[in-house]
Amino acid sequence: MKFAFLISISLAILIPVLIITGSNSQDLAGGSSNTNIAPPTVVDGTQIIEIAAKGGYSPKKTEAKANVPSIIQVKTSGTFDCSSALVIPSLGYSVYLPASGSTNIEVPAQQPGTVLRGMCSMGMYNFSISFS
User: Residue 83 burial (CB < 10 Å; 0-12/13-18/19+)?
Assistant: First the structure.
């Protein structure tokens, strides 16, 4: 009986909080659902794709040029959540990012229509880069 009462009280508190703040776990964790914040920059023939990792990844979606070598520059700042354990399956890439700093991931030129997907090791947070 006490257990059912505690569950009822917990739900009575939790449900209004979820309704007010929204139920998207990315937003609750401080992540962003932004699409392109800025297009990739090109330096010496290589495009630089910036991704921030903290409470998720931002931007979640990026458009990049196909047939151009790329560097995904992942920036962290006090990142201690699971977004610091980055995996990019199609590249066979996985790394534990530093709590603060910048990590460069070299990506060979991709064919048009390719979509690279990155995620935390738990699969909770993700981002995608579409090449066209």
Answer: buried
